[in-house]
Amino acid sequence: MRNEAMKYVLVTGGVVSGLGKGVTASSIGVVLKSCGLRVTSIKIDPYLNTDAGTMSPFEHGEVFVLDDGGEITDPNFISSFFCSKVDLDLGNYERFLDIKLTRDNNITTGKIYQSVINKERRGDYLGKTVQVVPHITDEIQEWIERVAMNPVDGTEEPADLCKYASVEDEIFSPHNNCGILDAGDIESMPFIEALGQFSYRVGPGNFCLVHVSLVPVLNVVGEQPLEEQVKVKLAQFCHVPIPNIINLHDVTNIWHIPLLLRDQKAHEAILKVLNLQCVGKVPREPKLAEWTERASKFDKLKTPVRIAMVGKYTGLSDSYLSVIKALLHASVALDRKLVVDWVASCDLEDCSAKETPDAYQKAWGLLKDADGVLVPGGFGDRGVQGKILAAKYARENNIPYLGICLGMQIAVIEFARSVMKLHGANSTEFDPAAKTPCVIFMPEGSKTHMGATMRLGSRRTFFQVNNCKSAKLYGNASYVDERHRHRYEVNPDMVPEFEKAGLSFVGKDESGRRMEIIELPTHRFFIGAQFHPEFTSRPGKPSPLFLGKHPSYSI
């Protein structure tokens, strides 16, 4: 039982996309956690979507998946609107703070209005006129208070502090009770009103506002440290003490941001507002030795490792943000400087040789120069043939290959066509009338509704072969829990044919009917996973499939 009040840190920001509100909120959480506080985080997105699952990567970047996938059966909710597909900022929160969040840690306007409408339909408001104020604003505040108390660090204890952001902002909550928030456009107005009320609701000493803003300086390239005279002007016009104006300028890598906050004593300013400066009579000081060592190590890396990322959204790196972070975690752990060569899969296709020969030559050049090939998850048939060609090149030339979700299915299709000579092999996602449907639509999916109708969240995979590469990489475990997001899967009726031809299905679900991991035993490293291992990779704990190494085994 906690006796102290929860502390909240609200992180807000302007409407400049990519300003850095998410990274700032995550970094504040890191610094406060290093001071001995237990932190949680909430992200507030003002859009009307109930989650990020149906949005194009060009809209909000990657769709991040949390542990708690699947449909909600709570009768208070309608259908399966709320699922574990969330904004990519929650990935930053999990990676930076090494916590596990839930779907409720991502608040959207759609979720709030859906909840209020459900209550109105049940008669919870006793016939009153339902309005934005107080019903929507109260729902927002109650949601924040409820979620802030949920344990996120593997213990049964709630956080001390909740950091949350609204109107394009974030929310966090550490074990000494603090939280952070950030927000944006006209749809953000209810959140701004609710948060204004919330600051009075929780009372003095329990609420701290952090605003992230761009300070443009003419004739300067990049983000530079603020001059003292600029800080003085900001203090005068914004009524903020000069010591509370923190400058987060360009750094060599993102892991330096918590160190910038520490060096400018941002923690002291926040802890003072929240009356958390001391434990007893001992001042709280951030302990960031491991974080400092990692940031410094990154800057000193020299030996490159080149990974060809073959995908559809290569023009927008945020589409594969978690994959890039997982590669980064692994490369730093192995003392290698990561170089990602973006290869648009459609540029590898034969038609590209005629239509865009320069792009074709460049794409194949990058693929052939790579130390490893990675085909990430995705949907739709654009560029699929190029991905198949990439898998074929890696298989035939003994180049390390990792296929994630669709990337695993691509490897299966390529094997069926090239090795088993099943030229009609395909996925029913791309060809519903495929002669050899080696990838099929899964039973619990929906062909009419896109949102929250996939196999989502953490599911258990059981290793079928004890001495396979994947099991060894996971420390000779008998099973592993990883996060999923897919509608199609390998046709289980064809598995005996595949295994007879040499493709090994080393990981399956508890029923034995769902194929989770494939391997080519004769290849140095050719692995496909139906799940998404990138979502659980952490800076100090890289995903085993990305690392390709274990203390007792390496490839």
Name the features.
555 residues, 9-stranded mixed beta sheet, CTP synthase activity, single chain, alpha/beta, 21% strand, 24 strands
The biggest beta sheet reads: 9 strands, mixed
Structural class, by secondary structure, is alpha/beta
Count of individual beta strands? 24
The fraction of residues assigned to DSSP E strands is 15-25%
Rg over CA atoms: 25 Å
Choose one word for the global shape: globular
State the distance separating the first and last CA atoms: 47 Å
Entry summary:
This protein has 555 residues and is an alpha/beta fold.
Write up this protein.
This protein has 555 residues and is α/β, with parallel strands linked by helices. 33% of the residues lie in helices and 21% in strands. The protein is built from 18 helices and 24 strands. A nine-stranded mixed beta sheet has the order 12-11-13-14-22-21-20-17-18, with helices on both faces. Strands 1, 2, 5, 6, 7 and 8 form a six-stranded mixed beta sheet that branches. Strands 15-16-19 form a three-stranded mixed beta sheet, covered by helices on one side. Strand 21 (515-519) and strand 22 form a beta hairpin. Helix 4 (109-122) packs across helix 5, helix 5 packs across helix 6 (189-202) and helix 14 crosses helix 15 (406-418). The longest helix is centred in the N-terminal third of the chain and has 17 residues, at 132-148. The model is unreliable at 70-83 and 167-184 (pLDDT under 50).
